[in-house]
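We read letters as residues; the integers encode the fold. Take this protein.
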Amino acid sequence: MKINLLKIVFTLAVFATFISCEKEFLDTSPTSFINLDDTGASGELNPEILDATLNGVYSMMINTGTGGTTSHEDFGQKGYDIFTDFLSGDLALTANNYNRYGDFANLLATVDYTDNDNYTPWRYYYRVIRSSNLVIKSLGGNDVVPESISGKHSLGQAKALRAYAYFYLTQLYAPEYEASATVLPLYKDADDPIQAQATMQEVYDFMIEDLSSAITLLDGFTRTSKTNINEDVAKALLAYVYASKDESASNLLAKGLADQVIASGYPLMSSSEVVGGFNSLSTPGWIWGFDLTLANGLDLISWWGQMDVFTYSYQWAGDKKGIDDGLYAKIDANDIRKTQFDPANNLQPRNKFYNAARQIGGQRNIEDDYIYMRVAEMYLLSAEMAAKENQDGDARTRLNQLLSQRFSDASDYAYVNGLSGSDLLNEVILQTRIELWGEGKSYLSMKRNKQMMTRGSNHVFHAGLSIPYSDPRLTYEIPRAEIQNNPYID
């Protein structure tokens, strides 16, 4: 369902109040729409205002400039999905005519704390956190449960959004989970002063608390659009948090949550759907995304403007991006996903992500939707956690369920039934990279599975390079702007 235009205009007006002040790095948001001195009253008495404020946070996820720059790579969550896919090596920059990602793909930007590529994700995710904190404060704070159903659902979404932002910050700005290592300033309240770096354990405990609370608060929430976070999205986010710890007890919790999301009834995308363009939020197998309309005002500066040759885009004009040719070679010839990529055109995803008109450079103003999460991720995460915990039967079952939608002949994936132990885990990881290519998930897999990644021959930079997940070039630096504004970070 497309969002009503009037609601969008109001939402963007609210959203504008969140980002209008640029003088301080973690400045307090204006409060003209929510009165924090009347704690709880706004949310209880004016649910439409709370909804509009939440819509402003969701709009932040797709709007340009939310990382604090005018860069053509600064357009919210899907922008960072591209960045991390480059770091994983599964996304290859195959031509660099406009140099939009040149320094980044060359692994130069991440080790330079003055580079804007380190600044934009930090700025963006902390804006999401700050805005979520404002909503939570308006509803009475972290420890209050609103009396109204709408208030509970608003609070659940805000807590899940806050945890989502902290999760990505932990993944981008730390090489791995290490409980005692200091990592990020932790802001739990809209009124918190500048904070020192909390330990990884503290940040993870807070994310788990937020998402566990969100799951409870969102029980019974029927959303009108998959743009909003519901209980299933919160469970999936919590599964990712647990999985990234890479500990046995957490693995089992992650598997349990992934299985719960699967049981909620989202179907796997069919073989025809995975070559159908990935352009509609109405796709049954999608769990979370954004319902884009012309009113959102996106054009060249967008995910479609960077990735789709059938959009007026860098992908068409000269900054070409394709699947790593080493990974492509590992896709079975009878696998429908092999056809997602065009070997005659830099292995671009011309048959995975595309505007339905299929006119080269045709879509100028973006109406195709954004995907953040789909149920296939939970099948693969469940299989991965099962394989790690010696539940080989469960892992094979989940993997077979997915592959049954990618092959027309069961004999083509019958080999899975003979896999066990590390061979089975490695197959799950490979299928995760193939299935979720270009969707911003390969980097998360690389980190939690502590992989050594080898670039294929079709990368402009570092072709053939083997690089471990722990290499400093694969993790972001805390940006100079934060260090200058935070006296607790040296």
Observations:
- The chain is about 45% helix and 5% strand.
- Residues 5-275+372-485 form a domain with the Serine Threonine Protein Phosphatase 5, Tetratricopeptide repeat fold (CATH 1.25.40.390).
